[in-house]
TrEMBL record:
Residues 499-671 form the Acetophenone carboxylase-like C-terminal domain. It comes from Hominiventricola aquisgranensis. This is Hydantoinase/oxoprolinase family protein. Pfam families: Hydant_A_C, Hydant_A_N, Hydantoinase_A. Residues 3-174 form the Hydantoinase/oxoprolinase N-terminal domain. Residues 196-486 form the Hydantoinase A/oxoprolinase domain. InterPro entries: ACX-like_C (IPR049517), ATPase_NBD (IPR043129), Hydant_A_N (IPR008040), Hydantoinase_A (IPR002821), Oxoprolinase-like (IPR045079).
Amino acid sequence: MKVATDIGGTFTDLVAIDENGSLILEKAHTTPPNFDQGVMDVLKKSGVDMKSIEAFFHGTTTIINALTERKGAKTALITTKGFRDILELARGNRPDLFNMVFEKPTPFVPRYLRREVTERISYKGEILTPLSEEDIRTAVEYLKKEQVEAIAVCYINSYANEEHERKTVEKIKELWPEVYVCPSVDITREWREYERTSTAVLNAYVMPVASSYLNRLGQRLTDAGMPENRYIMQSNGGTTTFEQAKLTPVNIVESGPVAGVFGSSILGKIIGEPNIIAFDVGGTTAKCSLIDQGAVKVTTSYYIEKDERHAGYPIMAPVVDIVEIGNGGGSIAWIDEGGSLKVGPKSAGALPGPVAYGKNGTEPTTTDANLIAGRLSAKNFDMEVSLDNVKNALVEKVGKHFNISAEESAESIIRVADSNMNNALKLISVRRGYDPRDFAMVAFGGGGPMHGPTLAKELNIRKVIIPVAASVFSAWGMLMSDIRHDFIQTKILSFQNTSMDELNAMWKSQIDESHKILASEGLKEDQAVFTFIADMRYAGQEHTVQVQAPAYPWKEEDRAEIMNRFHKTHEHFYTFSLPDTPAEIVNLHLVAYGQLNKPALQKIAPQKDDISSALKETRPVFFNGDGWLDTPIYDRSKLGFGAKAQGPLVVEEPTTATVVCPGQSLSVDEYGNLIVEMEVE
C-alpha cells in the first residue's frame, strides 16, 4: 500500500493505492496551526492499515505559511566584509514604477543581526583573502548573546568555491552545536549575490519550523505503526526524504501545488496528451501551469509575496513554474471602495469556512455561490447545510449593494471568479507565446471540475480531463513521483571556444555528487536517471534560456545540435534568433531522478446500459454565458468506460462536481477519467 497526504488551506487530502491499483480517496479538515493533526485525522478516516504502508508521501503548506505569516526563527546572517547591506540593496527594479512611496521588502534578518567576516573569493573561485576564524568567533559570541536560533552563511562568489562557507559552518558548529546553520552552497550554486543571500536566509529562517514539524509528524506516524519509508514533495516536482527536507526546507515551499502539476504530466503521457495546462482550484487558491511536450517547466526565478506592487523575496531554488491567484472555493466575495464586486484573495479557510459549512461563517464564498447556482448539491456536503443562511449571506454582503437577489449575487460571484481564473490561465499560455488550442486541460482540486470546462470554452481549449481522484489529485501526483535533486553550477564559458572535455568534467562532478546523495537516501545506482539542461545566452545578453541538452558525455558532433536547440528555444520565447552570434553557457543544470516503484492504474468496467441509469435528478443550474438551464445531474460512480452524453449536465461525486456546458460533450475513458470536449473556434 502506498499512501500520499496533501495539506491544503481548507482540506487535508489522502490517496492510497494498493498493489492491485485500487484507490482509497479521503478528505479531512485542515487543522491549523497543528497541521500534523489533520494528517492523522485523514489517515484514521481512510481506514488504512498503518503497518501495511510501504511508502508514505507528504505535501505540506507549513513552510510557505511560516514565511508568509512571519512565524520562523530569529535568524542571523554571516556574510563577506562589505556586503552586510545586500538584503536592503536588493535589486534596483521597481514593480510599481509610478508609486512615489514605494518601499523595498523588509529583510527577514534585521541589520543588527548581520555580521561581516573577512574573506574574499574571486568569480573564478580563486581565494583572494583568507578566511578569518577570529571574525567567525566574534560573530558567534555576539549572536549567542542575541539568542538567535538559526544562522545563514553566504559569502560572495561562494558558488565558484565553497571552501570558506564549509569552514565557517564547521567553526560555528564547533563553537555553538545547538544552533541551526545553513550555508548557501547547500541550496544553490548559481551566481547573483542578492538572490543567493535571500535564499540562504529564508532557508535558515524556516529550518527550526521544518525540523519541529517533521519530527512531530514522523514520531506520530512511528507511534501509529507506520514503517520508515517517508518522502516529502519538493517544489521541483520530485520528492526527498524527511531528513533531507529538514536541511533544505526552502525546497518544499511549494510542496503541495507542484504535485498536481507533475501528476497532470504523468496522466497526459498515459492518455496520449503531451501538451497539458494543469488547472487546480482548491479551497484558497487557483493554480495553473503549462506542460509542453510532457516537460514540466522548472524555474529558479521564484519569489514569495511578489505582485504588481511588491518586489517580493527571491528564492533561488528549482520550483515548478506555477501562476497562483487567491481565488478558490473559500475565497470571500466583497465590495471594494469603488463599489465593485471582488472575489478573493482573502479566504474563509477551514475555519470558519464558507457559510454552507455551518461553522459560524458569515462571508459568502465561491463555494456558497456554486451551491446556490445549482452546481453543487447540499446533499453532498458532510454537514447539515442551511440554504437560507447561505442566501441571506449572499444578499446581505452582495445583493443589497446591487439591489439583486441571492441567485443573481451567486451568478455575479461566479463570473468574477471565472474572470480572475481566466487571466491566470492566459498568463501561462497566451502571454508566453503558446496557443491554448494546442493544449488539453487537466482540471482538478475541489473547484477545478466546476470552473475548468467554462474557462476552456472561453479560451478555445479543445479538451478538459477530469481525473478519477480530481479533488485529491495533488496527493495522487505524489504517488507517481520520483526522488529528484537539481544540481546547478554557474560557470560562464564561451560555448564555441570551450572544449568538450572541460564541460564533461563539470557534468561528471555533478553526477558523482548526485550518486552520493541518492545512495544516502537508500537508492541504488541503477535507479538513477539524469536530465541535462544548459542555461545559455547570446554573448552580450544578461539573461538565459533553458536548452534541453544531449546526455553525458558530450561529443564534438553534439556542438552543432546544442546550438540549433538554443536558437530555436530563444526564438520561441523572444521571437528572434541570431544564428551568426556566438553563445555562452552560464549554468549547467543536472536533474537527477531516483526512480521509485509506481502503482499501476486500474481500468474501470464498460458502461453496460444507457447513461440514464446514472441519472440522479434534474435541477436548474447556472451556466456562465447561457444563464439558468434545467440540467441532468449524474452520479460519477455509476458511469462506466464508454459512457457518453451531451451538455449541459453536471456529474457529481462526494467531493466535487463537473459542470459540462452547452455545446460540450462528455465521455468516460478506460481509466475512469471524464473527458469534456468541444468545438474549437
